[in-house]
Amino acid sequence: MMKVKGGDLDKLGLIYERYNRSLYSFFYRKTMQSQLSEDLVQSVFERMLKYRTTYSGTGAFTTWMFSIARNAHIDHYRKEKRRGEDEILDEERIAGDVPPEYVEMDERNQKKVMLEIALNRLDEDKKEVVIMSRFEGLRYHEIAEIQGVTESAVKVRMFRAMKELKQIVTTLSEEYSNE
Amino acid sequence: MSEKNEKLIADYLQGNLSEEDKLKVEELLAKGDIDFIDFRAMEQLHDELDLIQVPEPSQEMSNRFYTMLEGEKQTTRVSLVETIREKLVELLQSVTMPRLAYAFVLLVIGGFIGTQLNSGDSEIEQLTSEMQNMREMMMVSMLEGPSTTDQLRAVNISAQLPTADEKAIRALLFTLDNNESVNVRVQAVEALSRWGNLPLVQEGMVRSIARQESDIVIITLADAMVDLGLKNSANEFQRLIDEKDLAGATKRKVENTIAILL
């Protein structure tokens, strides 16, 4: 990124190749929307170019990148809120609802659906900690920097997020096994 | 459960625990301070999160990124050329040490060309044009400076210009008419002769004949007029003979020149 800052913009192509999938996954797990996730990935790289001169190179690059990603996501939802538009989700499924074909699925796929729903029912901060820690491999101190809280607070959030996930999955499983 | 134990479990899930902390977790589990079943269920759930898959992004995402990157590169390149040009103009306008400025300009241009080797033809053309403008500005600035060496160098720079604009020609003609150094004026005649097909150059050189005092410059001009076939210069040479007390050899040269031209 220091080379991009120095004017070698081609190096951003290397960064893109290395991190686009990770950013896309981050946004997809947050939004469950493919097109929106792609738009947000584009927004992150546009911001990297725009604010490249502010990159100091002191912390981890991924921390800087996910801070931009987090802000891009927040800005998007602020805009949506102002416009009063509802989200249109992929696969015509509202996050948090069990799809009609659930009963015909095997156990593994049922579990997957339950986990997706449970993750989407977490509040944004908890969901983010789980995504960044579990899927993107960020350390707690890096997540703390991105979220602007202490490392201890992140650890507590992670524990409570996992506890809540477990409760939601248990409740949903009981609910749907009785149907 | 205490926050301390919550943090301990969070660290366990991320694989951050030291040997000492691992023992602590085992003790807490053994004592029942952490519920073993809950702990195992949470650990299992953490592992099962792998089941959540993410689809592949479309090719369109990459296309959009590279289009955006290319656009940014173009914008940056144009603004870089502009910045360099502005800086050079600024530098040359305030130049007090032309030789240093000349060296600096060559360094900047060389470096810049080096970075642009992969550019397209149109960009090379743009850069070539920019370089010519820079050379012309540099030449004019150095001609106006006080150093004879730099004035000579400036006249030589004109030899590197594939074409000359009016400003550069007028600067050379002014040098031919007014420069105190004979060497500089002789060089100016030779430089101007390269563009001797231009009316502005022809008129300026012919007009300059009567202003010359130096025998060497007069002889150089006489040769140039013959080479360029400028017959209308004969009258100016005749005026020179009539009005000035030329040295014998110079007078004979001028008379021969008039004879050739007529």
Task: Outline the structure in words.
- Chain A has 179 residues and is mostly helical.
- Chain A has eight helices and no strands.
- Chain A has helices spanning 2-5, 11-31, 34-50, 61-83, 107-121, 124-135, 140-147, 151-177.
- The interface between A and B is large, with 44 and 35 residues.
What are the SSEs and their pairings?
The complex is a heterodimer of chains A (179) and B (262).
Chain A (H helix, E strand, L loop, with lengths): L1 H4 L5 H21 L2 H17 L10 H23 L23 H15 L2 H12 L4 H8 L3 H27 L2
Helix pairs in contact in A: 2-3, 2-6, 3-4, 4-7, 5-8, 6-8, 7-8
Chain B lengths: L2 H12 L4 H13 L4 H13 L10 H35 L4 H18 L5 H23 L4 H11 L7 H13 L3 H12 L5 H11 L5 H14 L4 H11 L4 H14 L1
Helix pairs in contact in B: 4-5, 4-6, 5-6, 6-7, 6-8, 7-9, 8-9, 8-10, 9-11, 11-13, 12-13
What is the number of E strands of chain A? 0
Uncertain regions spanning at least 5 consecutive residues of chain B: none
First-last Cα distance of chain A: 54 Å
Structural class of chain B: mainly alpha
What is the approximate shape of chain A? elongated
Strand content of chain A: under 5%
Sheet with the most strands, sense and barrel status of chain A? none
- Shape, per Cα inertia axes of chain B: rod-shaped
DSSP, total strands of chain B? 0
| Estimated radius of gyration of chain A | 18 Å
Helix coverage percent of residues of chain B? over 70%
Uncertain stretches of 5 or more adjacent residues of chain A: 88-94
**In DSSP terms, counting alpha (H) and pi (I) runs of 4 or more, how many helices of chain B?**
13
* Average pLDDT for all residues of chain A: 84
Please sum up the structure shown:
The complex is a heterodimer of chains A (179) and B (262). With 179 residues, chain A is mainly α.
